[in-house]
Amino acid sequence: MPIDDRIRRVLERIGQAEERSGRPPGSVVLLAASKTRPVEVLQEAWKAGIRRFGENRVQELVAKAPHLPEAEWHMIGRLQRNKARRAVNSAELIHSLDSPSLAETLDRLGRERSRPVHALVEVNLGGEAAKGGIAPQDLPAFLQTLAGRDGLQIQGLMAIPPPGRTAEDSRAHFRSLADLARAAAERRLPGVEMKHLSMGMSADYVVAIEEGATIVRLGTEVFGPRTP
């Protein structure tokens, strides 16, 4: 299927999910997860209306961003502290803040440039050892340590649920993340907003939207299957 047809179909499904869940059109941001996709394919997606791209690796982010300078770039993969400066220089939003040490680094970088780094806190909903993220029970205390920083502004939460057989298997995890965000918002911590829930990928994004996602990260649905 041509990429413009894929994008049209995705936008239709996003709109339908917004309507079913009683949310106004445009509530959900489509972020094209462009890991390993060549620049030429991203440029096709841009022509078809995609304005936001998410990269998993800093080196790919830094290499691709200059080719689409008007696009909004997000860092969605796990971020090492020694690569944080390069990520911050290219990305509008870091989706994977998952440790006090990374928070310290991002805060320092934000203060150095006199403009806060925008980030989402990654939550490890399933307690999976192979994934980064803050445990749900540790989230309130972690957010407290992030409050009031001059160089770091928290804009919400991100999560990748444990693998399931169907999209419905992710629903309870998405609902849990939305509950965590509501509880955090009620605390009104300075510099800690819950304007974004980054959850849902190609296999389960419709369910994620129904449970409150504001950003969905789609690779295969936008670009098609990866070629070997």
- Rounded to an integer, what's the Rg over CA atoms? 17 Å
- The 3D shape can be described as globular
Total beta-strand segments: 8
**Major sheet details:** 8 strands, parallel
**SSE string, helices as H and strands as E:** HEHEHEHEHEHEHEHEH
What oligomerization state is this entry in?
Answer: single chain
Global structural class: alpha/beta
> Which architecture would the CATH scheme give at its second level?
Alpha-Beta Barrel
Helix content: 25-40%
Can you identify the CATH class?
A: Alpha Beta
Report how far the terminal alpha carbons are from each other: 18 Å
Structure annotation, total helices? 9
DSSP strand content: 15-25%
Total domains:
1
The CATH homologous superfamily name equals: Alanine racemase
Indicate the mean pLDDT: 96
Question: Going across the major beta sheet, what is the strand order?
Answer: 7-6-5-4-3-2-1-8
For this structure, the CATH topology is TIM Barrel
Low-confidence stretches: none
